[in-house]
Write the structure tokens for this entry.
Amino acid sequence: MKWLKPFQQALIVMCFKYNYTMIIASRGMGKSLIAAIVCVLKCILYPGIKICIAAGKRGQSVNIIKKIIEDFMTSSANLRNEIDDYKISLSVASVHFRNGSSIQVVTAADSARSARANFILADEFVQIKKNILDKVIRKFKAGQRTPRFFLKAKYKDYPKEPNTELYLSSAYYKYHYSYAKFKSFFKSMIKGDNYCVVGFPYQLPVSQGYYPIEQIRDEMLEDDWDSIGWMMEMDSLFFGQSENAFYSFDELSSARKLIKPIYPKHYYNLLNDSSLKYPIKKNGEIRILSVDVATQGGKESDASCFSVLQLIPYGQNRYLRNVVYMTTTKGGHTFNQAIKARRLFYDLDCDYIVLDSQGVGIGVFDNLVQEQTDDERNIVYPAWSCINDESMANRCKSPDAPKVIYSIKASAQFNSDAAVSLRDSVRQGKLRLLIHENEANENLGKIKKFGSLDIENQVLFQEPFYQTTALINEMVNCAMRS
């Protein structure tokens, strides 16, 4: 395999030398390539071996089979002679060798309990649920490979080879079980047990010519560059809160229970799917639009954030708080930001708008307290007034304007009280957030018309989930002050 880089050859050797191997690698490392090679070599060198591939998304596992058939097999007559049969589809993906070995893709779910394997490959294992990994996938190893020479009496006491496991992924959050597994593997490796853990940041694929350094620079300079996501996916570092973090990653993750956002009404026309319809407001429900305004002409990364909080009543003066929508837009003229806020206000049937009117948001506030013309929609929006601050209400010159705006003039005490109240809401289960984007993308992929949308429109449906992750990342970076 002269076409393999030295580090790839070393990784392949590790997968054969150790019973338990974990590779934490950045994008561009060729993890699927290494996985495919390891599977093929094991099948050829160990007749009768049974290999099961599982991943957080079944399509990832199928891609490994495709690489074996479409890349390796088409260019190697020797491999074609070894393979007896294969199937590739989303429902069935497998390769059968003439010597009795096989590779089978299994779904990371309870339905896979009947599978059996001598070698387990967990691809992007951080996306596999812990109970499925422990109680289903790892239990595939019910028996050991038994070559025919064991039938001879003189070999009946010959030691059988152990079943093995390989875990591939990029890094993830420290609150996730994958970090505990990573540390467990590492400790076992240090003690000299049959474990191996390696981690490769983006500098390695760059140095080997797999990932252009110019592309790295471009990505890091983009307005929406996510430093935390980069740390995990490219630096191969697990991320988690510091010891003095005010908010708990684990608690915030547990709050991610909302499967569907509430999108602006016209989004639903793009899909026209019965499983995704605009939810009509319930009796007593309140929807609040929160606007965090970015400066005009500020830093390249400055962006205004628009969030919708859905308040569902339960009991007397008690509400369940659902963060049902989030989007950002690059800071610009306050007139345009006010128009954006008004559109979302009406598109999502909001009742109030919360706005920081002490800082740069005062420009947006002054646009909201007077009539505005939306040329694109051909609408004249009415003036709104302030509900909680008489001096701010006086900035509105329309005496009959509805009191819609809640003006925030934050102080140190206000910020402290708000932070404590938010943390209490999370701990008491009163605040619910949207599910993780990986799970959301899987759900969206099941909608017939979603795959046919252009990328820009697909992003519209995905954005609230990614913004929720960004929100959580910012929250766990909030440290307690002594």
Remarks:
- The chain has 17 helices and 18 strands.
- Residues 6-214 form a domain with the Rossmann fold fold (CATH 3.40.50.300).
- The first strand starts at residue 20 and ends at 25.
